[in-house]
TrEMBL record:
Transmembrane segments: none annotated. Substrate binds at T9, K41, L73, R87. SUPFAM superfamilies: Nucleotidylyl transferase (SSF52374). One of its GO terms (biological process) is coenzyme A biosynthetic process. The gene is coaD. It is found in: Cytoplasm. This is Phosphopantetheine adenylyltransferase.
Amino acid sequence: MPIAVYPGTFDPITNGHCDLVERASKLFDKVILAVAVNIGKHPAFDLAQRVELAETVFADCANVEVKPFNNLLVEFVQAQGGDVILRGLRAVSDFEYEFQLASMNRRLAPTLETMFLTPAEQCAFISSSLVKEIAVLGGDTSEFVPPAVQTALERRFNTVE
């Protein structure tokens, strides 16, 4: 089975991300969670923190690796020996952008495939942006993120009472 690379900012990693990784880990020999620097998004957590949180979350998944990257995605995937770029589709609104990315990646690296997975129904509405907004406003994000991420959000946004 091929190696899948699941790229993203993962700021923070959510239960939706976890759902996709857990399901992909059953389909591929290895899943690499590729944590992007992506400073344009002004992340709440720096790259090292996002990598550490992801490593904590997936510590029990033997065939999941977490790696940072700061280069062209197709170059990173090829350097890792990857065959598939894994992307999540939450809603129809995601499709047009993801389709454009997949087409560009295919143009840049014709041997790489892009595979789309949809999250479980209970995770389809979760996004990192919404989770951060809830955390900034002091809301409870515990049902949207793993426990380690919840703790990190509370520390980051000083919502621990």
